[in-house]
Amino acid sequence: GEHVTRALTLASPEETHQLGVRLGGLLEPGDFVGLIGDLGAGKTHLVRGVAEGARVPRSEVASPTFAIVYPYSGRIPLYHADLYRLTGYDDLYATGFMDLVGGEGALLVEWLDRVPEAAPREHLRVTLAHAGGDARTLQAEAFGTRAAALLTAWLP
Ligand code: ADP
Ligand code: MG
User: Fold this and answer.
1) What HEC string does 20-77 produce?
2) Complete edge-to-edge strand list for the sheet that includes strand 5-10
3) Which ligand neighbours the alpha carbon of 84 most closely?
4) Nearest by Cα to 80 from 40, 112, 128
5) What does the pLDDT look like over 92-121, one tens digit per residue?
6) Ion ligand 2 nearby residues (CB, 5 A)
7) Is the CB of 91 within 6 Å of ligand 1?
């Protein structure tokens, strides 16, 4: 099929948030979104928007924990993972994360580039980068037909 990619500039945290809200309204069970980018690029900020768009109660998103995977319940189950502290696939496997892939929830995975093997064949990959001040660039790439449909709906 068609290889769908997108690139845009986000001028402010609010823009990033709103883009996340829109993605949160589109996610379906089984979706996998990998988030890549340096510290402070805006991965978590985007996920907070996604959680709002998926109607996760704000109190859940604020819940402080040191787990690798944060479960949220909204319109659908959402799992927010951060692979920053992991050393590799074996480490990730031990967390039980792989049991969630392709399950009844949608996964948002920060630092996917740390453990690329964590991604299923079909997934959406989003890369954020600093672009001076509050500007960020966002690049998205769809792998598989569902991810292509999701990306096309998210960023027409
Ligand atoms: P990451 O999870 O990628 O390490 P965070 O989302 O935790 O990054 O932090 C991003 C920081 O950058 C936040 O403090 C946020 O307010 C700030 N910021 C400034 N401009 C933007 C933007 N355009 N999009 C997202 N965050 C931004
Ligand atoms: Mg983060």
Assistant:
1) HHHHHCCCCCCCEEEEECCCCCCHHHHHHHHHHHCCCCHHHHHCCCCCCEEEEECCCE
2) 5-10, 136-143, 123-130, 32-36, 106-110, 77-82, 69-73
3) 2
4) 112
5) 888 888 999 999 999 999 999 999 999 999
6) 43-44, 110
7) no
Query: Ligand 1: does its nearest atom lie under 6 Å from the Cβ of 13?
Result: yes
Question: Which CATH number characterizes residue 148's domain?
Answer: 3.40.50.300
Question: For residue 48, which of 60, 65, 64, 36 has the smallest C-alpha distance?
Answer: 60
The region of weakest confidence among 62-66, 75-79, 82-86, 89-93 is: 62-66
Question: Which amino acid residue places its CA nearest to atom 27 of ligand 1?
Answer: 13
The total number of structural domains in the chain stands at 1
Identify residue 57 by its one-letter amino acid code.
P
Domain span including residue 23: 5-154
5-10 and 136-143 as β-strands: parallel, antiparallel, unpaired?
Answer: antiparallel
**Interval 4-53: pLDDT, tens:** 999 999 999 999 999 999 999 999 999 999 999 999 999 999 999 999 99
Would you call 147 helix, strand, or coil by DSSP?
helix
Give the span between the Cα atoms of 69 and 81, in whole angstroms: 4
Residue 119, helix vs strand vs coil: coil
